[in-house]
Design goal:
The structure holds 2 protein chains of 2 kinds. In chain A, 36% of the residues lie in helices and 24% in strands. Chain A is of the alpha/beta class. Chain A has a single domain, classed as 3-Layer(aba) Sandwich (Rossmann fold). In chain A, the strands form 5 sheets. Chain A has a 6-stranded mixed sheet with strand order 6-5-2-7-8-13, with helices on both faces. A two-stranded antiparallel ribbon of chain A has the order 1-14. The radius of gyration of chain A is 29 Å and the shape is elongated. By secondary structure, chain B is of the alpha/beta class. Chain B has 2 domains: 82 residues, no CATH class; 220 residues, von Willebrand factor, type A domain (Rossmann fold, 3-Layer(aba) Sandwich). Chain B is built from 9 helices and 11 strands. In chain B, helix 2 runs antiparallel to helix 9, helix 3 runs antiparallel to helix 4 and helix 5 runs parallel beside helix 6. The two termini of chain B are 52 Å apart. The chains are: A alpha/beta, B alpha/beta.
Chain lengths: 301, 328
């Protein structure tokens, strides 16, 4: 009987294998939720970022150079599909260089733009960090939804904020999510000075600031005015700004810590992804095929 | 050509593919005395053939699960294209209303209520880049200082991202056209001469070039063999590039007069002319068709579907053989 031939377990298993394999041609897909990420990195390029009190893997360097290197390395560890954009901050605003683009396909381009970021691009000599952060948030709010801000700065306000007329934050805290990253050391260090051609010309001295006392609010203590030419990471200031705007704060240590913060659930963008399940069917077919062989081995009639 | 696996760990299942050689899976017939049967070479051949087919099925399934693919290939091609440095004026003057399309909206120039010269310029550039995908593009900006943004790239998404970035916010400070132009030209210093070179200046030209700066620009254009194109963004209240009765008065007229007098390849395209962009592209097409080397990436090709097809055929053969097995 022809039908009896089909009813043997070995043949049925083999039939199952063939059917499962045939089913792969229907290209079945499952929808899974996988996180993705989109950031704009804003780099403070004001002169205090040239202070050399940061380090990368124990190797000392300027705050800006270390921030760039660490960011690039952290970016490399993020999954493909992540998008990154780059922007500058100096004066009182951010300036976008690149809207977010996918990091794996454009690694070479992102690296080139990132490495090209320099204090020489500065269009203003001021560094109003609070205003710069507020403007950065306003900029990111105009980009596609779920774009996160990563604002990297030493928090050095020049000229200093007058406590009587502090800059006002008019946005809604938490409307844009992201991270404030502090870079620099705790004790004040001098700031290198460069000429127009980019050659180093000593350091900013107290004398350079002597005639700029008018920049300072009259309530500022004289010791602070006397040390205007020195710079340290103003961590409490950056933390306060982060808290006010609903951002997280991280002190820049290494790429792993930065990457961990970048992949934080709060910054992830939920996305549904179609996952190819043909391999599962093929695995089923393989198991069925092997079972069929083994079943026949046991059968002895 | 090289091949790869998306899930190499699946190869651990490869030994399983050898099982059909050991366990043939064919129906066993009991015979009183095996020795009484004559050796049959056809039967032996059929036996091993069937084992081979089953092995092939298992092998193909494992390779399919492992996600066999042909790796992406980088091929170098010779094409017709150009190396274009887009040099965008990002000074405050580019935030002013553009000459057309702003009627009745620009009395109070509140950012966001009108279309600025800078925004129109970037729209035109985006269209230009989209129409010439073979070109290598770089993007520089300038205001009071030059800002080199993106070195030469053949990735359309990257150049579009750099062009779009300047459309969200106002431009920066003052204009130093000379410094911007010099930096854009100096960029060619370290580049191999592998195609025609263009600096595509996008500006309203409200700048003054001093004589030493003019000399420097002329020297660099000549030295690096660069063609200069100027996509001119006319202001709402500007007289345009052509001098009127009173001679060259407006700054852009002076800049245009200088470029024209250099005796070097140069062309200006007033952007308010709706055909300007088309003419500019046509001109680049016509003049810049020197061979350029570029690398093209052929994307990876998933071969697991082919594996499954082989597996299906082998399984069907095996199944057929099982069904026609005879019972003595």
């Amino acid at each position: 009987m022809a039908l009896r031939r089909w009813r043997r377990p070995a043949v049925l298993a083999l039939l199952l294998a063939a059917v499962a394999t045939a089913a792969t041609f229907a290209d079945p897909r499952l929808h899974m939720r996988t996180p993705t990420y989109r950031y704009v990195f804003v780099f403070d390029i004001s002169q205090s970022m040239n202070a050399e009190d940061a380090n990368y893997d124990g190797e000392p360097g300027s705050r800006l150079a270390v921030a760039k290197r660490t960011t690039l390395e952290a970016l490399m560890t993020l999954p493909c599909g992540t998008e990154a954009g780059l922007a500058l901050f100096t004066g009182h605003r951010a300036f976008l260089l690149l809207t977010p683009i996918e990091i794996c396909a454009h690694y070479r381009e992102l690296r080139a733009v990132l490495q090209g970021i320099s204090w020489r691009m500065a269009w203003e000599q001021r560094s109003e960090v609070a205003k710069g952060l507020y403007k950065s948030l306003a900029l990111v709010a105009q980009l596609p939804r779920h774009t996160r801000l990563v604002f990297i700065s030493d928090g050095h306000e020049a000229p200093p904020i007058d406590p009587e007329v502090p800059p006002r934050f008019t946005g809604r805290a938490g409307a844009v999510r992201g991270l404030v990253v502090g870079v620099g050391g705790d004790s004040p260090v001098s700031i290198p000075k460069f000429d127009e051609s980019g050659a180093r010309r000593g350091e900013w001295s107290a004398q350079d600031f002597a005639d700029r006392a008018a920049d300072w609010p009259h309530t500022a203590p004289p010791s602070e005015v006397a040390n205007a030419h020195l710079s340290a990471l103003k961590e409490p200031h950056l933390m306060a700004l982060a808290a006010q705007t609903g951002l997280a704060y991280l002190r820049l240590q290494d790429a792993a810590a930065l990457a961990a913060q970048l992949r934080h659930d709060r910054l992830a963008i939920p996305r549904s992804e179609a996952v190819d399940v043909r391999a599962a069917l093929a695995a089923m077919a393989l198991v069925a095929l092997l079972l069929s062989l083994l079943a026949q081995r046991g059968a002895r009639r | 050509m090289s091949f790869g696996l998306a899930q190499p760990l699946a190869l651990l299942a490869l030994p399983l593919a050898l099982l059909p050689l050991v366990f043939h899976g064919q129906r066993v017939q009991s015979v009183a005395a095996l020795a009484s049967l004559p050796p049959d070479p056809w039967s032996t051949a059929a036996d091993w053939m069937l084992r081979g087919v089953a092995t092939l099925a298992a092998l193909a399934l494992v390779l399919g699960i492992a996600g066999l693919y042909r790796a992406e290939q980088v091929v170098e091609r010779i094409g017709l294209g150009a190396q274009v440095v887009m040099l965008i004026d990002s000074s405050g003057s580019m935030d002013r209303p553009y000459v057309t399309g702003n009627r009745g909206t620009s009395r109070a120039a509140v950012w966001g209520t009108y279309r600025s010269k800078g925004q129109i310029a970037r729209e035109l550039l985006a269209e230009y880049a989209a129409r010439r995908p073979r070109d290598m593009n770089a993007l520089f900006m300038f205001s009071s200082h030059p800002i080199p943004v993106l070195p030469l790239t053949d990735k359309p998404a990257a150049i579009q991202a750099a062009i779009e970035a300047g459309t969200y916010e106002r431009g920066l400070a003052s204009t130093d056209l000379g410094a911007g132009l010099i930096q854009a030209l100096e960029f060619f210093k370290d580049q191999p001469f592998s195609g025609s070179r263009i600096v595509l200046l996008v500006s309203d030209g409200s700048a003054v070039l001093t004589i030493p700066v003019q000399d420097h620009i002329r020297n660099l254009l000549e030295k690096y063999r660069v063609t200069l194109y100027w996509l001119y963004m006319r202001d709402q209240h500007s007289p345009g590039l052509q001098p009127g009765r009173n001679g060259e008065i407006a700054p852009e007229q002076q800049v245009h007069a200088f470029f024209s007098s250099m005796g070097l390849p140069y062309r200006a395209y007033p952007a308010e002319d709706p055909t300007a962009l088309k003419r500019a592209i046509a001109e680049v097409d016509r003049l810049q068709n020197l061979p350029i080397r570029y690398s093209d990436v052929l994307p990876r090709v998933d071969l697991s579907g082919g594996c499954y097809l082989v597996a299906l055929i082998a399984l069907a053969l095996t199944l057929g053989a099982r069904v026609v097995e005879v019972e003595l």
